[in-house]
Design a protein that fits this description.
Length: 174
């Protein structure tokens, strides 16, 4: 398993719930809060449990945290909670992957770097999608296929601007 699974696990909520900047901020903050709370509580539980009991405790904790998150969103930000739908519950998958990918050494430093990057990506995607929809009138940018196309464009731009030599595309040797 590579470290890119974290990006794939967090892709559904990011692409589905970042139509505008406020929605992107809510889903990014939800990812941040849920992941940090999950890791903080698991730091206490981790030395005491192992194996299947640890996984069960992690799942139960995630279910409780996600339920509390959705109730808090409905209580304090109902329009944004209705706009994001059930995407905050999908963050649980990202939390599970994060727990398995982080190594014991520098665990909190890695987690903070990943969360800052993911929050920045959410906000960038939300700003661009809102600008494309409202500023340029491209209605498909507010839909999920438009988000996938925008993600492809951003990845192509990143690969174009990334310094360093290109990797060899040769598949086999003779």
């Amino acid at each position: 398993m590579t470290r890119y699974w974290l990006l794939v696990a967090g892709l559904a909520p990011v692409l589905g719930a970042t139509r505008t900047l406020p929605q992107a901020a809510v889903i990014g903050a939800s990812m941040l809060v849920l992941t940090v709370l999950h890791q903080a509580v698991l730091a206490v539980v981790r030395p005491r449990l192992e194996g299947r009991l640890y996984t069960l405790a992690s799942l139960l904790l995630l279910a409780a945290l996600a339920s509390c998150l959705q109730m808090a969103l409905r209580a304090w930000a109902l329009p944004l909670a209705l706009a994001t739908g059930y995407f905050p519950a999908l963050i649980c998958l990202q939390c599970l992957v994060t727990d398995h990918l982080l190594v014991e050494k520098d665990r909190w430093r890695q987690l903070c770097l990943q969360m800052v990057g993911l929050m920045g990506f959410c906000l960038l995607l939300g700003v661009i999608r809102q600008w494309l929809t409202e500023g340029l009138g491209i209605a498909s940018a507010s839909l999920a296929p438009g988000a996938l196309i925008l993600l492809g464009v951003l990845l192509a731009l990143y690969n174009r601007l990334r310094p360093g030599p290109a990797l060899s595309r040769r598949q086999g040797k003779r």
